[in-house]
Amino acid sequence: MTGPILTRQIAILIDGGFLLRRLPKLGLAGQDVEPVAGAVRRLCRRHVAMLTGSNAERNWHRHLYRIFFYDALPYEGAAHHPLKNQQIDFDKSDTAKFRRALFAELRKKRNVALRLGKVVRHDDWSMPTRKLKPLLGTRDWIAGLDLDAVDDQGRITLDPEQLETVKRLQKRWSELEDDDVTLDLRQKGVDMRIGLDIAALTLKRFVSTVVLVSGDSDFVPAAKLARREGMQFILDPLWQSINDDLFEHIDGLQSGLPKPKPKPE
Q: Which residue from 19, 71, 59 is spatially nearest to 43, judged by alpha carbons?
C-alpha cells in the first residue's frame, strides 16, 4: 500500500471486459447498465480516496485527470448456430444491446473517456475441451454398432447390448446445451490502446499516478516504461490473484471494490 500522493493528477484505466467478468464474482450485477456505471464510479472514488487520503464525496474529481474505459464495439455479423439450426444475429443480441447502452451511459459521466476497439470473427464455432472430449469418446461406441441388419420394412433390430449403447449415446448428446458451442470472436485493439495511453500519459507528464484495473500481464512493458519515467503505477486486479513476478513491475496493489465474502460451507 502506498502513502498519500501530493499531486492531483491521477489517471484510472479500466479494462472493461475484465471488469464485467469480475463483477458477478464480487457479488455485483454485471449485465445491468446503471449498477455497472455505479460500480465504476465507486471504484474510482475509492482509489482516489486511498491515494490522496481524502474521503470528500464532492471533491474527489479534483484529484482526477481522467477515467479511461476500454472495451470493444459489439460484433455486428451473423452466423448459423450448429445446434439451434438457426441464424444468430449478434448485433441484436442482449450482450450487444447491453454494451451499447453501457457505452452511452459512460459517455455522460464526468471525466470519462471511452477507448473502443472492435470484436472480429477469428474462427468458426467451437466448444470447450471439457465438453468436446466426452463426445469424441463416443466414436468407438458408434463403431461397435451393427446397423446393417435392416428388415423388409426398413427397421433395425438391436440386441440388448446395442440398445444400451444407443441409450448411452442419446444421454451423452442430450447433455450438450446450445450455449456449449460458441463462435470464436476476439477483441482487437483494446490492449494496444491501454499500452499507448499509458505511454502517452507518462511521456507527456499529464499525470503522476496511473491506476490500472486489469488482470492481464500484457501491461508489464507499459508499466516498466511508466516506472522508469518516475510515475507511480498501481494495479487493481479486483481481488483476482496475480503472479508473484508481477509485483516487481508495480508500485502498489489495491482494489477499489469490496472484497467478496467467502461462500458459506
A: 19
Q: Is the pLDDT of residue 37 over 50?
A: yes
Give me the torsion for CA of 192, 195, 201, 204, rounded to 10°.
-80
- State the cell numbers at 247: 509485483
Strands, E, within 127-176: which ranges?
Answer: none
Residues 218-245: what's their mean pLDDT?
91
> pLDDT tens across 138-155, in order?
877 777 666 666 666 667
DSSP label at residue 23: G
DSSP H or E stretch at residue 14: strand 10-15
Antiparallel, parallel or unpaired: β 78-81 and 86-89: antiparallel
> Which residue, 98, 111, 102, is CA-closest to 62?
111
Cβ-based neighbour number of residue 44 at 10 Å: 23
Segments making up each domain of the chain, as ranges = 10-123+184-253, 129-174
Q: What is the mean pLDDT of residues 105-126?
A: 94
The answer to whether 179 and 134 have CB atoms below 8 angstroms apart is no
Helix, coil or strand: residue 203: helix
Class of domain 10-123+184-253: alpha beta
| 8 Å CB contact between 210 and 234 | yes
* The model's pTM: 0.84
